[in-house]
């Protein structure tokens, strides 16, 4: 089984839906340790992405669809999340190129390049209480699943489960990057909003892949 542009478009739709549904919760997380606008910013950004999907030709590759996410987020989302997630999608789409179908190794390549883009742009590492704490476990779990011969859908599900665990793991951490770093110990006990939204985004990719598996 492979994943194609239908999966990529479904992933974008599902992400827009979940970010809209969770925007108040994400903004509340951000109010506790940041500016308080993370959910609103992401909801606006992914709504703009969905509006622009019609610009893609029917034969557009998954990489082209995901590159559209990158450019739209960078141009419409304020704060740190737009450039960080935009870079993630940009680097990830470059890693898969114009392939019409993505196998498990391609999914791992996308996730790895996306994570590396976040690290490059944000200069963060695991334990800094950022979205890297969700992306890195997702990459590790995806790579392990692919090495075991898992399908792309199972690779993404492994990544989503690990990202959720990674997001939860930020709660006891002291932030070392961003606005939350100014809070010191007061950030302990609060989940990082970027890690949480990243977990939701990766889960949406897995849900879309499950849908593609059932259709096939």
Structural descriptors:
216 residues; mainly alpha; Serine Threonine Protein Phosphatase 5, Tetratricopeptide repeat; 69% helix; globular; transferase; EC 2.7.1.-
What is the element layout, followed by pairings?
Layout: H1 5-21, H2 23-33, H3 38-52, H4 62-76, H5 81-96, H6 104-122, H7 132-147, H8 152-168, H9 193-215
GO molecular function: glycerone kinase activity
Pfam families: Dak2
EC number: 2.7.1.-
Short description:
Pfam families: Dak2 (PF02734). With 216 residues, the chain is mainly alpha-helical. The chain has helices at 5-21, 23-33, 38-52, 62-76, 81-96, 104-122, 132-147, 152-168, 193-215.
Fold and architecture overview:
The protein has a single domain (5-215), classed as Alpha Horseshoe (Serine Threonine Protein Phosphatase 5, Tetratricopeptide repeat). The longest helix is centred in the last third of the chain and has 23 residues, at 193-215. The mean pLDDT is 94. The termini are close together. It has helices spanning 5-21, 23-33, 38-52, 62-76, 81-96, 104-122, 132-147, 152-168, 193-215. The chain has 216 residues and is an all-alpha fold. The protein is built from 9 helices and no strands. α3 (38-52) packs across α4, α6 (104-122) runs parallel beside α8 and α8 (152-168) runs antiparallel to α9.
Major pleated sheet:
none
Task: Kindly report how far apart the N and C termini lie.
Answer: 8 Å
Strand segment tally = 0
Indicate the CATH class.
Answer: Mainly Alpha
Low-pLDDT segments: none
Q: What's the CATH architecture?
A: Alpha Horseshoe
Total number of helical segments? 9
N-to-C order of helices and strands: HHHHHHHHH
Strand content: under 5%
> How many domains would you count in the coordinates?
1
CATH superfamily caption? DhaL domain
SS content category = mainly alpha
Question: What portion of residues is helical?
Answer: 55-70%
Keywords: Kinase, Transferase
Protein name: Dihydroxyacetone kinase subunit L
GO molecular function: glycerone kinase activity
Pfam family, one: Dak2
């Amino acid at each position: 089984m492979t994943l194609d542009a239908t999966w990529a478009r479904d992933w974008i739709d599902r992400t827009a839906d979940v970010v809209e549904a969770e925007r108040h919760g994400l903004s509340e997380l951000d109010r506790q340790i940041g500016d308080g606008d993370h959910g609103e910013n992401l909801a606006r950004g992914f709504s703009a992405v969905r509006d622009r999907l019609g610009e893609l030709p029917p034969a557009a590759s998954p990489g082209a669809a995901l590159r559209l996410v990158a450019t739209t987020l960078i141009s419409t989302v304020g704060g740190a999340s737009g450039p960080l997630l935009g870079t993630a999608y940009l680097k990830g789409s470059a890693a898969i190129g114009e392939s019409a179908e993505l196998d498990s190794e391609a999914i791992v390549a996308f996730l790895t390049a996306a994570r590396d883009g976040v690290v490059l742009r944000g200069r963060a590492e695991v334990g800094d209480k950022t979205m890297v704490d969700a992306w890195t476990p997702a990459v590790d779990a995806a790579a392990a699943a692919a090495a075991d011969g898992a399908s792309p859908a199972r690779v993404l599900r492994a990544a989503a489960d690990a990202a959720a665990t990674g997001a939860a793991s930020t709660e006891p951490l002291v932030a070392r990057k961003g606005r939350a770093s100014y809070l010191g110990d007061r950030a302990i006990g609060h989940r990082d909003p970027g890690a949480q939204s990243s977990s939701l985004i990766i889960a949406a990719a897995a849900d879309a892949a499950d849908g593609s598996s059932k259709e096939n």
